[in-house]
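Progress against Task 2.4 (sequence-to-structure conversion) is shown through the following example record, which the project officer requested during the mid-term review.
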Amino acid sequence: MNNYYIGVDLGTTSAKSVLFDHQNQDIATSNVEYPLYTPEPMIAELDPEEIYEAVMKTIREVVQKSAVDPEQIALVSFSCAMHSVIPIDEAGLPLMRAITWADTRASAQAAKLKGSDEGLALYQRTGTPIHAMSPLTKLLWLKEEKCEVFNRAHKFIDIKAYVLYKLFGEYVIDYSLASATGMFNLGKLAWDERALSLTGLTAEQLPTPVPTMQVMTGCTVEVARLLGVGVATRFVIGASDGPLSNLGLGAIRPGDVALTIGTSGAIRTVVDKPVTDEQMRTFCYALTEKHWVVGGAVNNGGIVLRWVRDALLGGQLDYEAMTALAEGVAPGADGLFFHPYLLGERSPLWDADVRGSFFGLGMHHQSAHLIRAALEGVMFNLYHVLNGLRDVIGEPQMITATGGFARSALWRQILADLFDVEVRIPDNVESSCLGAVMLGRLALGEVADLEELIPDQTSSHHHLPAAGVASKYRELIPVYLRLVEAFSAAHAQMKNL
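Structure tokens generated for the chain above:
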């Protein structure tokens, strides 16, 4: 019986493969890092060939580590970071490195399009907020600033499409990644005609959109041997990392919310049809044709705490010592707010030019207050994102949270108190890889629907809101939000000074 499965995640700084058994238990893991090239502040690129080699190595290593018979591996399914663009020539060779979501060189193009008469309508058709992260604005930037590369390109693809082309010889993109490009019509499940017109491209110059449960064929015996899998192993195209993380965490029922804070952060929930926001605060990405993920991703998560450590504390304290200091400060940091927009911001502001600030500083504030305000600022911002979801889901019933922040008991409790909701930290942190496997098993017909595969997870930590603290945050939240609004005009002015 073929009862082992491999989930592969193509991330921003590494590729990871995890081998699971039929009970969703991870048997072996391999992670291979690759550099994110940032020669200038606005540039963030990846080498496509380094990604491909990392994917090949991680798959091969999990098979070797597990000592599983390759013929018992039923499938390999893929998760991938969103919003990448690679111009390639007719031979399938990259004309430049992959432009990632973190690259902000398209800020001017994004601002122009967002401020135009058709900006909102374009977002409502595609589900992708207009921002420098999106492939649509990246293509407009390439057209204007790298016209030689733009005109030479045979196709424009993403990093998963590059890997799949190397493996199977065809250019395809799953509906999930396509729905994160800003160019994919959610109602028609096809490239949006107006978005194509804006870029001057044809549908043939982009990968072919296919369902997330598409089974890939054409893998040669030689490629299977290099990967260490059996010739009968099936390959499923999979989806993007955020929606698959929700699936892997089991957060796909009404009212379930998944929150992740690593370097950046995100908050997401699942609905049964595409939903957009009149204020353009949230995204809407496909998981399957019956499951759509709405939410918001933020640029500023754990990186805020690292900045506080290095820039304000001289790198003298580790994170555990920092949070220990912050525990001695009352909620609200004695009147100190921190707006955590060090890297600009995606949701809910979708403004690459916004910047961070402390507000309310006084002589009584010490380093512990700065730390506490920074921790709270990240959560205030994610709460701001949640406001854009309330019309869709109402009040969340529970938040399933993952990421590096979960190592901090204080930060977990701040989440529970500020959101005033139960918070669960699951044991299994390989959520995107597990989600890819679950989607693959549905694609192969092992189950009738995704709900059958929702893992019965145990929790490593569980937090309930403290009533008195939660009520304090209820008073502070509107003040924080009013300050965000008041500062918005100043950020635009500062950009030109």
